[in-house]
Amino acid sequence: MRNATLYIAEPLTEGVTTFFAVERVLAAGATAAGNHQIIELLGFGRGLVLNGRLHRCDLDRVLHQEALAHPALAAHPHPRRVLLLGAAGGGVLKNILAHRSVERVVVVEPQGALVEHARAHLADWHDGAFDDARTRLVKSDVRAWLADAGEARFDVIIADLPAPLDGGVAAGCYTREAFAAARALLAPGGLFAVAAGSAALTRPGQLVDCRTTLEAVFKTVRIATVLLTSTLEPRAIALASDDLDPATVPASVVAERLAERHVQPIACTARMYSGLFAQPAWLAERTGRILTDDAPFQR
Amino acid sequence: MAWPPKNADTVLLETHTDALTAAFHAEQMLVWGQTQWQRYSVARVPGFGKVLFLDGKTQSAELDEFVYHEALVQPAMMLHPNPRRVLICGGGEGATLREVLRHRSVEKAYQIDIDGELIEVAKEHLGEWHQGAYADPRAEVVITDARGYLESIEPGSLDVVISDLPDPMEDGPATKLFTREFFALVARALGEDGTFGMQAGSAALTHADFFTRITRTVGDVFAYTRPCVTHVATYMEPWGFLVAGKNADPLKLTAEELGRRQAARGLVPRIYTPEMHASLLTAPEYILEAIAAVTSVATDANPVLWTA
Q1: How close does chain A come to B231, measured CA to CA in Å?
Q2: What is the ipTM score, two decimals?
Q3: Catalytic residue chosen out of the listed positions B164, B167, B220, B249
Q4: Chain A: nearest CA to B116, how far in angstroms?
Q5: Radius of gyration of chain B (CA)
Q6: Alpha-carbon distance A220 to A245, whole Å?
Q7: Which of A151, B114, B169, B219 measures 20 to 30 Å from B208, CA to CA?
Q8: For the segment B115-141, what is each residue's pLDDT rounded down to a tens digit?
């Protein structure tokens, strides 16, 4: 360990604790809905910490942001209305807006100050996406907004929220009731994507429970896996729909859709769709628990 | 925040780069010592089972050694139409040998390792890894330097070579086992259908330069060389392997043909399944870009060293 004064100590699993060296804290906020910090990490650049866990950082944020946005949008033939649950640093929003078919994106973020801090400190992450004419920012609890959304319908809904690891408000966004509320807001042919946690052999519990819960709500559930460095584990993105099956969209169609929408991914290119939805046998064979509001995810 | 951990008396610290330190919670130290070549310890870590550390770095764990060893061995073994004679460089734990011997077609498997003391430790303490492979009559262990051994054998006498060597440190014994000259000796020892599989270091965004340079170096020798990348949970990062063929392209092997070969050989894979074939062989864009940007291959005169 080099001589940093601040560390993020993360209990990655029961068998290993990791220490990220922090050079300085750029911004911090704490609300009843959760807390966040924007920090400068030694070696990994700026990082966004949500509820005590490194959500994303400069080093490989693009891989994760693209994997959350592009497979979901590319699975849909013509996504116009998009709902993003969780603003994070604005990078997923930027990648959604990169699809020229998109006419409107509603971003629901419970931690109001997070967007202001991201505007100030993560300018190259959002690249002005918060101020795009197609963006509508809403400061609200996620579940409350889903319940009150009324007639609004979306072609694609993407959830990029803090992990449910420590209970509370975050865990309430990964339940059968939360997923059903999102499903109710999908237009016919719509698709729901959710950042579903670790795909590592050391702690697949969140992913497996999330997949089982989505399968109780949606007809088709696919798991895309993205290899990351800063998270110390691959991250899974679950794609769920009653009408679409992302795994049956050929890479050539993905390439056509990306091209006609003028999207030029850096990491999640059409080539990466080869095997994107494959799961290793140990993961495919596991079954989890249906998460509910009464019994949400628990480590 | 559970620090210090309540489930362990000892923590083993591993520094990946300055940016990151990992503390493994060792609930029990099972064995430790020093051979002529390296320092070793085996600890029991919650969730991981037994973990082998060499020179203070995690080498493999009971939990996920199958991921590493299948990704290392099976792409090369499956690419060969009928592997009978196989040579392994390194692989002291014995799991590489175990994966090779899973193929009924294999008549002879040579394991060339410089550290005989570590193999004795593995035989006694790492039964979960070798699962009796060292006692298989088809196995022959030779304690010697792999380079000298490859120089001495008949050209074209092997079907598959697997390199399971530690990343080379400065002045360490593995330095000349990661060079163009060494890979040329591997190719020389292989028959015309010969295939080669190797562990080639980290594929993490922060330090994939070793992997990408080795990929170019092996690519300079073999007609077809493909990176194979998967996450190894114990290393906590994406890891790079290579599969190379003298006349067969791993990317041309279809999932259907892979499934047929596995069924014919009675082999039930856990990671290298027909479904995962394309996923494992589709390297991230940043890896392909870094491979394309490599300016020089590794040679005896200008070797590549592991520095992370």
Answers
A1: 7
A2: 0.94
A3: B164
A4: 30
A5: 19
A6: 6
A7: B114
A8: 999 999 999 999 999 999 999 999 999
